[in-house]
Write a structure and sequence with these properties.
Layout (H helix, E strand, L loop, with lengths): L1 H4 L3 E5 L8 E5 L1 H10 L7 H10 L5 H29 L8 H8 L8 E3 L6 E4 L5 E3 L5 H8 L10 H10 L2 H8 L8 H6 L3 H4 L4 H20 L11 H13 L7 H21 L6 E3 L6 E3 L15 H33 L10 H9 L5 H7 L5 H8 L1 H26 L9 H27 L10 H13 L1
Antiparallel strand pairs: 1-2, 3-4, 4-5, 6-7
Amino acid sequence: MAALARYWMLWCVNPGDDRLRYQHRDIPSAKAFCYQKRDNQTKDMQQVLLSLFRRADSDAEKRAQAGLCLRCYVSDPILKACKKIDSLFSGNKAFSYQDLLPFVLNDDGQKLVVLSEDDKTQQVVCSDSHLQPSAFKIFAVEVLRTYKGDDSSSMSLDNWAFLRTKQHPELKNFLAEFGFKPFSDWTLLNRIQQSQLVRLTQREQLMVEAFHAVYRRDRRAKKQYGRCEPPTAEQLTEMNALLERGDAAFGLSSELLTGIKQIAQQLRAFDIWSAREPLEIKDQETGDYILRGDLPAEASDESEIDSQDFLAFLQQQLAIALTTSIEQAVQSRIAKLKKSKKYAPFASAYLTGLRSYYEEGRSLREIGPQLGMSSWDQTRRILNPGELLSQVRQLTAQFLLAPILKEAQAKGLSATPADPEYLRTLMEQIELFIDSKIFGEAVSETKAGKNRSLNSEYARVLISYLQQYS
């Protein structure tokens, strides 16, 4: 009965109570509808309700009642997702999971809602059974609209609601206000915290202070509150002038820019390390913080972690992962060409073609005739530098995940086995790091056109590999 009750018990926001800002509300009409549809197989209830909710040819009120039951059901994983986000970002933050609830638990269960025939619009069922488009979108209905649980390989409704909650745009924008978003280098520097600042060298701290003095001043003066753009040449010159007072100036503004970017890379590495699970969790009943039960008895204290050592470890592992990924991706591409009836004759020319592209800077249009390829389109399909780059990026992230996770588990910072949500968060942080360090520049090179300069770290490592194995 407890499992069935999920279809008529709705978690919703309780704005009248500052202490507990949400409540579990009984929805009588949903309960009555569930009893009408119930059989001896409670596990089939969800499929019965989903089928009825999606039937455009069915009575609108019955469809809406089925949807109301499902809205009650998904309110539980929506609440759990908010709590999970809270735990992932616990520590120095100024919000709790209850601050997230208004974005996603915006359903009071009072309206009957169906979807339009094209499944794009929420419609309210009025008292006289006619439909009218809803100006207010209920998030739980949106979860149901996008759920495609049509076969055994599909994600469960619980997991889908959990995932959609984490991806909610307004919720992500809210988190961004507290620093939890994919940041540019300039945003990382602009919002650096004292706990991160003290881990930098004295000269790096002076660079950050100069950056803040000029960059923050100008943003405030221009009332800029959106994305942080790169500093201008004038701003870099002024920063360098400030650094000169502390004998920390650079010879060229471009050198200062490089130095600032290197600091941002350290901050991004700190963020990867801080993506771990919290050592303590908050007991929602008592309000006290307690040690997580799945951690080893002698977990390392956070203050013992040397972030500089971790940064060196991360750089070393990144170099290994990149080299391994390039070798695996190139060999995989050659093997695929050899198996192709159409392109097998060109498999032996693949490495030569890549060398011409990366080492000599030739275009695909120039390379094709030299290798006996009939057209630019055929050359692109055979060499496809963009596809190779994408595959190397994916492999690099995968290869980097394992040593970072192993290190975190060795220090007691992650459960064994790791929680799936933790793994997803960690992988997102790794992808942001490798993009800032390697692949962002590599992608820009490939899009630069005829006069591109292939000097990125990715291009250098790939050229080294091609020279060795051609």
